[in-house]
Amino acid sequence: MKKLLLFTAYLACLIICLPVFAQTRIDRKALVLRHTVMVTKPDTLASLSVGNGRFAFTTDITGLQTFTKEYSRGVPLGTQSEWGWHSFIDTIGYKRSEAYKTYNLNGRDVTYTVQWNSPERNKAVSNWFRQNPHRLQLGNVGFDIQLADGSLAGLNDIKDVRQELNMYTGEIKSHFSVEGVPVDVSTFGHQQEDAISAKVVSPLLTTGRLKINVRFPYPTGDWIDEGANYGNVQKHSSSIQNSSKGGVVLKHQLDTTVYYAAIGWDGTATTSQKEPHYFLVSPSGSNTFSFSCRFSNNARATVPSYAQTVAGNTKAWPQFWNSGAAVDFSGSTDKRAFELERRVILSQYLLRIQEAGDFPPQETGLTYNSWFGKPHLEMHYWHSMQYALWNRMDLLERSLGWYKKVYGIAKSIAERQGYEGVRWQKMTDNDGQEAPSSVGAFLIWQQPHLIYFAELAYRDKPGAAELNKYKDLVFATADFMASYPFFEKDKNRYILGKGLIPAQERFKAEETFNPTYELVYWHWALKTAAEWRKRLNLAPNPKWNEVVQKLSKLPIQNNLYLATESATDSYTNPEYKTDHPSVLGALGMMPSTGQVDTTIMKNTFDWVWKNWSWKDTWGWDFPMVAMTATRLGMPDKAIDALLMNIQTNTYLPNGHNYQDDRLRIYLPGNGGVLAAIAMMCAGYDGNTVVNPGIPKDETWKVRWEGFKKMP
User: Fold this and answer.
1) What's the burial of 288, exposed, middle or buried (CB within 10 Å: 0-12/13-18/19+)?
2) d(CA 439, CA 365)
3) Do residues 52 and 191 make contact, with C-beta atoms less than 8 angstroms apart?
4) Burial class (CB within 10 angstroms; exposed 0-12, middle 13-18, buried 19+) of 504
5) What is d(CA 425, CA 406) in angstroms, rounded to the nearest whole number?
6) How far apart are the first and last CA of the chain?
């Protein structure tokens, strides 16, 4: 009888546990490895990178940065860190206040930090503070490869190419030959330090025809800096600080900026200076040579060994891939599924190596400068929000501390303009200074992001600790948001504007008010801030509540939501069907707040889908549209949006989102893909549909685990 009871209990347990056994975990290693990047010919748009989120190093086909000039118009061979910034010497005595311009808006004067076309003094000032500080290209580490005739090998001399990026171990493995002689290179980025390590195996080492070079470029000071400016040799200095048989420390000084490149190696090598800012490490005695190069503003920084770097990577990368969320499309028969999965895997890798640090990132990460290397706070949402949905909140929270650091500057901006609380900067730098911008100064959709991020942090760790951690930032953000709207007494309502440019940057600041997306975001953020007060047992803020209650209704015309209330020609002016279709973000990026009528939003979506000038869009627009389609119950359109065949929705072999000749990489697009996929699988608050953004036919089979719902 006892045995029978035990057997019955065993059967019952087996039946109960069957669903668990049936839902096997995703084989994450296999998932990642099936998207190993393979490069078989020189391709300047297929550069591969290693990094740790605070430092990144981008390589050409040789596994190092040998052909910087040739790659400069593709995906450049950058070496950038979070700390590496520089300013030219101000010999004139510019004052940021000289970039202020006063506008009379809603009956009062408000000053904004803008670009000037004239007079010349103001123009020079605004250009100066846009240009300075700028992010630095720290230096290039490549090969000098000598041909049999004594000349240096060019890109066309590189043959038999076979290069792969193993994202599960963090290794770039490169094979090539020069005049029939093979070269094999293994490249890693250190996971804690601003360093790279490489092992080189080739007969060219023993004959002295293969050397390691380190070159220091000079900053261009331009909107874009690809790290290949070897001119201006007299304007900076480079020197051998000290050397030994096992390494060398190189010093680089630009004006008041000083930093070091410390190189350590296993084996025998000598160091020499070939030209100004151009140094050689010449191995000898073996066909194998391993070395590391660490960049630092500390002359005494230790250099990790190649073996230590490898060990750190083989531990850190499996930990990353086996934490957080994962999604597997391998059961799908839709031919687009593999490409979507490829974008998802590569986007995770790219954002982890370039945008997991202590500061909001720039659009081009740590590869090359765009907008002088400065981050844009409105893009912080698209870069980093995805970490929370992928259950990697710690990577988002790293950069949230920056808001506390720059609080004083944000408060001074609000005070100067006559508002309460803090007005978050748009185009900024590590110190939080506001760069002059005739567009950025008028954007407001970066303002609620802090509340959105804080809410994600609270949802991840609900409790008093998270509330107290962010409450001061949340409340100061909301104070500005409540003081910013203008009260129209005759209509008994608050309006946003005039004096704003919406996320769709096609409207004149002095004329624009009540953009649809921003109205919804304003409403959501103020209500959420009010909920934070309630959670902390604090009295309601009557001003916040009044603004929420009397905020303008969303502007509607012909059963469509207008881009802004002030643009009644939203759908007849050709210019207004270009740039971001951010009107859709009002239900997509934003949850249902009670402001949006889904029938009208569906009409708006259909019009945008059929009539928008999609060639004049940006990489994050497609994920945004996918989010809206998901919330409207149109999963087929969500997939179609993510994979729309438009140039700005191109994803290169290395996973980067290509935009145009200027922006060959655009990481907000990658972040958008990850955010959209998480929402399309796990859904959002109030959603009851399984995989709401995935088509409900037999062609799509999706398994996922670990996602968090979107608000």
Assistant:
1) middle
2) 21
3) yes
4) buried
5) 9
6) 54
- Report the C-alpha gap between 202 and 212 in whole angstroms: 13
DSSP state of 56: E
Alpha helix ranges (H) inside 250-303: none
The type of residue at 10 is: Y
Instruction: Spell out where 454-563 has E strands.
Output: 486-488, 493-495, 556-557, 560-561
Three-state secondary structure call for residue 192: coil
CB contact burial 61-87 (16+ within 10 A = b; e otherwise):
bbbbbbbbebbbebbbbbbbbbbbbbb
Indicate the helix (H) or strand (E) that contains 140. strand 140-145
Q: In the structure encoding, which two tokens stand for residue 643, read together? A: 């994979």
Q: What is the DSSP letter of 478?
A: H
Average pLDDT, the chain: 96
Q: Which residues pair with 275 in a beta bridge?
A: 278
The predicted model scores a pTM of 0.95
Q: Is 267 left (phi over 0), alpha (psi -120 to 50) or beta?
A: left
The per-residue pLDDT for range 550-575, each reduced to its tens digit, is 999 999 999 999 999 999 999 999 99
The SS3 assignment for 570 reads coil
Paired sense of beta strands 140-145 and 55-59, if any: unpaired
Planar angle of CA 581, 589, 399, nearest 5 degrees: 115
C-alpha closest to that of 666 among 622, 611, 613: 622
Which residues, 6 or more positions from 77, have their beta carbon under 8 angstroms from its beta carbon? 47, 58, 59, 60, 65, 67, 68, 71, 140, 142, 227, 228
Residue type, 354: Q
Q: Residue 365 pLDDT more than 90?
A: yes
**Who contacts 627 (Cβ-Cβ below 8 Å, separation ≥6)?**
585, 588, 589, 638, 675, 676, 679, 680, 693, 710
CA dist 565 and 518 (Å) reads: 11
Q: 181: helix, coil or strand? A: strand
Q: CA 314 to CA 297: how far, in whole Å?
A: 27
The reported pLDDT for the residue numbered 680 is 98
- Which amino acid, one-letter code, is at 461? K
With tokens 């869009």, the residue in question is 617
Residue 221's contacts (CB-CB under 8 Å, 6 or more residues apart) are 88, 131, 134
Tens of pLDDT along 14-39? Answer: 333 333 334 689 999 999 999 999 99
Locate the DSSP E strands across 403-497: 486-488, 493-495
User: 354 and 57 in contact (C-beta within 8 Å)?
Assistant: no
Mapping DSSP onto H, E and C, the string for 208-260 reads: CCEEEEEECCCCCCCCCECCCCCCCHHHCEEEEEEEECCEEEEEEEECCEEEE
Q: Which two tokens stand for residue 125?
A: 């000032």
Q: Which residues contact 305 (CB under 8 A, 6 or more apart)?
A: 197, 264, 266, 290, 292
DSSP 453: H
